[in-house]
Every structure is written in C-alpha cells, then in structure tokens.
Specification:
- The structure is a single chain.
- By secondary structure, the protein is mostly helical.
- It has one domain.
- It is 50% helix and 7% strand.
- Strands 2-1-3 form a three-stranded parallel sheet.
- Helix 1 crosses helix 6.
C-alpha cells in the first residue's frame, strides 16, 4: 500500500478522486458523510468514479463488490475504528518507521508540485503498471 502524506487541505482527496477515475478503484471513507462529500467533489471536478462508501458498509457488503482494489481516504480514522473493534479496546498508540516520509519523497511517485488531471491519470496508470510487473 502506498501512502499519500501531505498536509491538511493540500489536495490528497482530490488526488484520490483523479486516481479513482483513472483506475476504477472505489474510495472507502471513515464515515457516510465523507463518502457523500467525495461524491459531490467528484461531480464538481467532472470525474466519474465508483460510488464512494464508508468502510462499515463496505465490510458489510464484502463479497458483493468485486473490486480489484480500493483507495482509503483518511486511513488513520479507518484503522483506528477497525483496530479498536478487533482488539475490543482503544488502541492508543502504534509505531511507524521513521523512513516512510523519506521513502515516499524518494519515490518516483512522490509529487511535490501540482499537476494536471490528465498528468495525474497518466501517472496512476504507470504506477499500477509497475505494480503488476
């Protein structure tokens, strides 16, 4: 799983919308409100994407959808809830390798400047092609 690490309000969800349109992968969110917001945002951008949905609904519908892959928006909140349910108590802390950000920045897939919708779609196709080789 690749992580898109950027500041709040920097366009991470917009990038996921473009990637969803390019790949056909559904966007999974922490809440139904966030899923509705993404659908509205995609419409405003002129993007056609699979129906975004909260992770709880996606888990309930497991087996009905035959997605080849999904994108997670706000993965921290999804993991918080899933892990709390799995362990039966709140998970207060976890570790993550300190080199993740440097790994992402050193990757040929790291984007430090705005790019066009078309450029983004082409980049996603290249990334997915590399992952399947």
């Amino acid at each position: 799983m690749r992580m898109l690490i950027k500041k709040r309000g920097s366009g991470k969800t917009t990038e996921l919308i473009y990637a969803s349109e390019a790949t056909g992968f559904r966007i999974i969110t922490p809440t139904i409100g966030m899923a509705k917001h993404i659908k509205t945002q995609a419409e405003k951008l002129g993007c056609v994407i699979p129906e975004p949905m909260p992770y709880t609904k996606y888990i309930e519908m497991k087996g009905i959808y035959h997605d080849k892959g999904v994108f997670l928006d706000e993965v921290k909140y999804i993991l918080d809830n899933i892990l709390d349910n799995y362990f039966g108590c709140h998970v207060y802390a976890g570790t993550l390798s300190n080199d993740l950000k440097e790994y992402c920045e050193g990757s040929s897939h790291y984007i430090s400047h705005p790019i066009s919708h078309t450029e983004y779609k082409e980049m996603i196709k290249r990334i997915l092609g590399e992952d399947t080789q």
